[in-house]
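quick one: inosinic acid bound model?
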Amino acid sequence: MEIYFCTGNKHKLKEYKAILEVAGIKVKKVSAKLIEIQANKLEDVAKEKVKTAYEKIKKPVFVEDAGLFIEALNGFPGVYSAYVFKTIGNQGILKLLNGIKNRKAIFKAVIAFVDENHKIHFFKGCCKGKIAYSIRGNFGFGFDPIFIPKGYNKTFAEDVELKNKISHRKRAIEKFVNFLKRKYLSKS
Ligand code: IMP
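yep, here:
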């Protein structure tokens, strides 16, 4: 089976391909100008993005919205992660946490999928961890070089294979795959 993914993020696309193709699902990229609305929840941002994507291709399609939520910063940057990464980046986050012992953080990803009946389905994945004291690793993207998943001593950017096994994205995709298999493959 194949599925359309609307994204402008080549790193996300690579991770989706790696994870979904193991499950026998081929990912086809669709491009559209997706506007990130200002909202308090990833689900609301993803919902608006997927509606735009569906209007463009008029076929079942999914999008993803993700963010890094840092406990000591009351969940910041959260839904503003893309903007914060673009402006202050990893160095800026480390500066904000300078002298702060509570390094707990959580990555969240929400997939929004529109089916052929225009119904929107959401699939959420989370990965707990902590913020490192320095930038470490050359793989992955975004906040990967400062995020250490719980139970490990490496950042996501130091071990991308590990990332693809336990990440927020992997967990959201698992739920999505189960849904797709139930909905489409059980009928064929
Ligand atoms: P988006 O709005 O879902 O594209 O993502 C928000 C921002 O969060 C991106 O610009 C990345 O900087 C960051 N981000 C999202 N997912 C990840 C991830 O898996 N690793 C590291 N950073 C991520």
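The chain has one domain: 2-187.
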